[in-house]
Design brief:
By secondary structure, the chain is an alpha+beta fold. The two termini are 19 Å apart. The strands form two sheets. It has a six-stranded mixed sheet. Strands 1-3-8-5 form a four-stranded antiparallel sheet. β6 and β7 form a beta hairpin. The radius of gyration is 20 Å and the shape is elongated. It folds into two domains: 205 residues, Sandwich (Immunoglobulin-like), CATH 2.60.40; 63 residues, Type 1 dockerin domain. The structure holds calcium ion (2 copies). The site of one calcium ion has 8 residues, from α3.
Amino acid sequence: MGRWGQRVGRPTPGRALCARSGSHAGRISLRAIASFSLILVGLLGSTVAAGISAHVFLADEATPLALADPNVPNIYRDVMVGTRLVIAVTSDMASGWGGALWLSRANLDTGIVSARGDNPAYPFFSYEGSCLPAAGTNALVTAAADASGLSFHLLSSWDAVPGPWFILDYQAKAVGECSVGLYGYAASTDVVTEPNPDDPGDPPPFEAVLIQVLSFQHVVSRDCNADTLVNFADFAVLAGRWRQTFVSDPNETMAVDLNGDDRIDVCDLVLFSDYWLERTDVMP
Ligand SMILES: [Ca+2]
Ligand SMILES: [Ca+2]
């Protein structure tokens, strides 16, 4: 049992998605998942609820990711490429609920969400490790990937109680912005809308109400030796190229020319220092 009390241990980030969602996306269509979820939500008598929210933590699952501006919610401070975060979906309700976390195709270029611990023995495929006890005995998390993006469908059970319901992993893949939307399924007879392949952006390819958008900004990693910690070993790499000039690669995810001016100097040292002793993940 981890901090959040999930029933299945945390797999390697990204493993669950890579290993499972691709194969299951072919067997379980987005339409089927959304329709099934909406049917269950209808039976459970719940629709979009104000009491659902997503919260972002560092990989230790305990430290909240700081906001860029304390007065502006959901827009987080810059994180280094490679940083693993945790998204917890919590509720103050004691009822069934259905919704989804969704990344558009464009956002998948920079960030990735993955779920934990699938249970192939369960009657319906579910990432059981992402379902926390408060979500109830029959909570489900399923994934679907298509041309529009990546969806993780979340469904709490009739015996859900207030508390943390779902936990998923997030990782910064490349420099740039990434937004993750939290949606609640809408109560409608027009249960599913077809995605528009010419418009990979909003809205998502299912009928839903937007609850929250988590906005991440990824910057070049200062962890030059990729041991998840920014410390003297990384400083030594920067110092070893001090005052050198060269042509920087703007696509490089670990570089010492942090401001991209083709020169290593005090400007890069200042940017390096911003992440001194920070980690991109928990201890390996
Ligand atoms: Ca390092
Ligand atoms: Ca520079």
